[in-house]
Amino acid sequence: MKSKVIMSVLAIVLIVSLAVVGCAKPAPGPAPSPGPAPSPGPAPSVEPIVWGTTQPLTGFDYEEAMEVIRGIRMALDEVNWTVDGRPVELVIEDDMWDPAIATSKTKKLILEDKIDVLLPHTGLGPLGAKDLIIDSNLLVITAWGNVPLLTRDPDYYRNYFNAGYDGGEQMPRFMAAVAYDMGYRKAIIMVNDFELGHDNATRFADIFEQLGGEVVQQVFTPLGCLDFTPYFLTVDIDKADFIYNFYWGGSAISWFTQYIDAGLKERIPFLTWGILDDDTLDNIVAAGYGDEAVGIKHGLFYTRNIDSPANNRMNASMLEMYGRSYADFGFLNGYDSARLAMLAIEAVNGDTSDLDGMIDFLENVEYVSARGPVSYGPMHILTQPGYVLQVVKEDGNYVNKVAEDYGEISMYWLPESLR
After folding, report:
1. Each residue of 168-218: pLDDT tens digit?
2. CATH class as words, domain 170-300+385-418
3. Are 4-21+47-165+310-380 and 170-300+385-418 equal in CATH topology?
4. Is beta strand 86-94 parallel, antiparallel or unpaired with respect to 49-55?
């Protein structure tokens, strides 16, 4: 059955580029001529399931948005865009990483497109459209970072699940432990100057200092920053033994290349979440900085190089369908958000109005992701393996390898010494 994909005019050009690299659903062949039949009646109509997603297709996070879309589409390609006997339509909107636009596009998806499930990039739109989502009994599974305000509202997070990670609690707790275990004791924090960046810095500092470390400086940069040179000039590297940072998309690439160009690698190391994920590493290598990344350790919940049956299967499926592997953390988050939505819909026999049934299923699901076994813990945030990765050069290729596995990291995880 040919899938129907509806999207805004703004997104069409971007999605065409996705089709060129092999992610588009292939067109079906010609239908066979019908044989003779006595008094055929009208074909039964099957109500489609409409999925909606808002993605930052304009701006610094375009690459990550495209990875998420590729992940969602591959999950649908694997099942021929059919879940529990019902065809799936995907409506894509560009939220431009702007809370007001994300809210407007989310409301449009609900009120005009009549979506059954919402799979946004982040919680920006769901936060602004919170009351409408509750009134619509809509299941939401975000494919990337959590917006902390959502999970602080007990009346809302019931509808809301996250298939990526929480950047205000889960991730900085893990990274603070990794930093301390690596022997670092005096930190400079560099993060985006918006709510999630501040939440991340606060929690990292809290756990790092409880462990015995000290935060000597915090530097906040504009969201979407691409020129870090003026901010590097303010960093007091003589008082610290490392920089902890949290950036993604175009900002991540700019931060790393400008850190190298400023000669800071020889003066102070850094520990990162996101700057060296697989997709960003590919872009850093393409920019000619691959050798500069070799040996650097960083934290993440996934790399395409994990050797596990689930990850090997996903990568093999991708190679078979598209001729290459796109897998990175953003792709996996999109793929897992779609797979979890499918499983929840199947659990209620395709009845997407049964929100309670889908919630009950997801709250008790034990899902084997390519990242490892996952389940939903407090605030509907995934409990998942935490990895220390290291960039290595292998057979001429620059890749991430797992250096250490910290085991399950939940929303409010603490290192053993603080439990």
Report:
1. 899 999 999 999 999 999 999 999 998 889 999 999 999 999 999 999 999
2. alpha beta
3. yes
4. parallel
Contact 192, 247 (CB under 8 A): yes
Q: How far apart are CA 361 and CA 352, in angstroms?
A: 13
Domain boundary assignment for the chain: 4-21+47-165+310-380, 170-300+385-418
> Cβ distance 303 to 402 under 8 Å?
yes
In this prediction, residue 3 carries a pLDDT of 42
Report angle CA 407, 410, 414 to the nearest 5 degrees.
80
What's the pLDDT score for residue 87? 97
pTM of the model: 0.85
DSSP for 210-253, written as a single string: HHT-EEEEEEEE-TT----HHHHTT--GGG-SEEEEE--HHHHH
pLDDT in tens, 332-369: 999 999 999 999 999 999 999 999 999 999 999 999 99
Dist CA 369 CA 408 (whole Å)? 13
252: which 2 tokens? 């991540």
Q: Which fold has domain 4-21+47-165+310-380?
A: Rossmann fold (3.40.50)
Hunting for tokens 């960003």 — which residue is that? 280
Distance between alpha carbon 154 and the CA centroid of its chain, in Å?
A: 23
Cα 304 to Cα 325: distance, rounded to the nearest angstrom: 9
CB within 8 Å of 1: residues ≥ 6 apart: 28, 80, 81, 82, 87
How many CA within 13 A on the CB side of residue 362? Answer: 32
What are the DSSP calls for 72-135, one per residue? HHHHHHHTTTEETTEEEEEEEEE-TT-HHHHHHHHHHHHHTS--SEE--SSSHHHHHTHHHHHH
Neighbours of 330 (CB within 10 A): 31
